[in-house]
Design a protein that fits this description.
The structure is a homodimer. Chain A is mainly β. Chain A has no helices and ten strands. Chain A has strands spanning about 10, 25-30, 35-40, 45-50, 55-60, 65-70, 70-75, 80-85, 90-95, 95-105. Chain A is flat. The mean pLDDT of chain A is about 95.
Chain lengths: ~110, ~110
Amino acid sequence: MPHAAPGQVVDVGPLGVELKQEATVALFKGDDLEVMRVVLQAGKSLPPHKVPGEITIHCLEGAVDITSEATSHVLRAGQLLYLRGHALHGVTALQDCSALVTIALKPKE
Amino acid sequence: MPHAAPGQVVDVGPLGVELKQEATVALFKGDDLEVMRVVLQAGKSLPPHKVPGEITIHCLEGAVDITSEATSHVLRAGQLLYLRGHALHGVTALQDCSALVTIALKPKE
């Protein structure tokens, strides 16, 4: 999927029955923001990682555990959290899930 | 509503029947990102405005017209777009709607 341009409408609704066949995609990368839709099947994990800028994680469907700074947070469809820049976080899908991840590309110095 | 802290789970699902009684709320303002849920009743508008950083607008329910640079974009539930920093944009609710707006606070110089 090509990256979206400014003003281009992107579908980010739940994938539903197609979730099993979908992979993580980058939706766009601008000057200040990058947005991707992360797809993770139940039981799969992303090992702890971090980025310089703040991020939001918005669960679109399913359920996902976000563990950061020794605390676990369960995100279900329709829930969002944000993490500070440089916050190490691990991600484990509790159910097949997709989530929008928005990353600030120009973090505070 | 107090602002969310990092790692705090925030419900951003559709408001449904409560939409008529809700107002726009700031969900949090961090170092790099600010997120608000904008609620707009059918026919209401926000006059053209702009912010220095890039923004994403994610329609959670209803339908909203975003006009920027002489082009109209209709966003429906489950659709998202982004706009460049300093992009003048007007917003008109085509139906009662709510949308997540994410603003990059540290735009590219």
